Amino acid sequence: MKERVITGFFGALFLLSVVYIGGYVFTGAVILIAIVAMYETLRMKGLPIVSPMSFIGMFMMMALLLPDNWWESWSWFTSWEWFVIGVFLLFLCTVLTKNFRTYDDAGFVTISAIYIGYGFHHLLVARAVEETGFLLVLLILFLIWSTDTGAYFVGKTWGRRKLWPAISPKKTLEGSIGGIGTALFVGILFYSFFPLFPSFWQLLLFVFIISIFGQVGDLVESALKRHVQVKDSGTILPGHGGILDRFDSLLFVMPILYFFQLLG
After folding, report:
1. Containing domain of residue 220, as a range?
2. Which end of the chain is more exposed for a tag (fewer CB within 10 A), N or C?
């Protein structure tokens, strides 16, 4: 637990610092984090990082991650067009390797590139919002962290009914509700100082989306780890596992916030 707390403290300090600085520093940090997360995902699948399929997958992830205006400044193709080119190259890999690398592998790489690239892309979009970008990302992080913290302590103290034992045996329904309640408290407290939304109801929608879908994102990564039969996505964060273990909720939540037009 001590190791976990120390890693969490310094990790949060680093992340909050780059969020505050913003600009190229924040973009560079997010790109680095995304590359590590993609590497962890490919490694969990057993794909060598030095291989055509891994290189293509990393490129596809970057195609979705980088800001749209970056592609427009030098390329004839949009980010999604580059991504589709990557998909066809993955298909080509299955042929050139004589099905040693299969459609299964190609599908895994494609989904992973969307999951990581599109999720982190919208984190960059949120930070780039004029005037309120810093506070918006800050609130998102606080809500995700408070959900995790509330779910852990409430579940540990009062948890009885399993939430989804086939995927994550330790998570409980009581813990999930406790996480939502903690996020709600933190969100209302934050809103009382920084009213980012035109109405209180919009804040509630924002909180519930992050807290509920953040927990779904955690279960999605748990399902992935069970599928590939690993405990953690990596070992880069002592006491926490890998980068993907720490950002699974964020990656799932960010596109949903965008779809609900809550990042503007």
Report:
1. 2-259
2. N
